[in-house]
Amino acid sequence: GYTGYAENTITVDTTAPALVSVTPAAGAQGVAVNSAIVFTFSEALNTASVTKDSVAVSSSFGQVPGMVSIS
After folding, report:
1. Interatomic CA distance for residues 2 and 14, integer angstroms
2. What confidence score (pLDDT) does residue 6 get?
3. Which contacts qualify for 35-40: CB closer than 8 Å, 24 or more apart?
4. 2, 19, 46, 57: which one has the fewest Cβ atoms less than 10 Å from its Cβ?
5. What pLDDT, in 10s, does the model give residues 23-33?
């Protein structure tokens, strides 16, 4: 009969991704109105959680319309 056993190790990531940088930088001047806004995080995001309903960009004039994509 079988006398061995299998050992598995599961690592749980309990640290949320942190925002590392935003391009263009806050207060940047001369940026074209159709420029992409790029958010860089400390680790990969769950692509299913990044939607137009979970990400919002706003200015002093209100929410900024646009598309959301992840790469």
Report:
1. 36
2. 77
3. 37/66
4. 2
5. 999 889 999 98
First vs last C-alpha separation in the chain: 50
How far apart CA 8 and CA 66 sit, in angstroms, is: 44
**Cα–Cα distance for residue pair 45/4, rounded to 1 Å:** 38
Q: What is the pTM of this model?
A: 0.68
Q: Which residue has the higher pLDDT, 52 or 32?
A: 32
Q: Output DSSP code: residue 49.
A: G
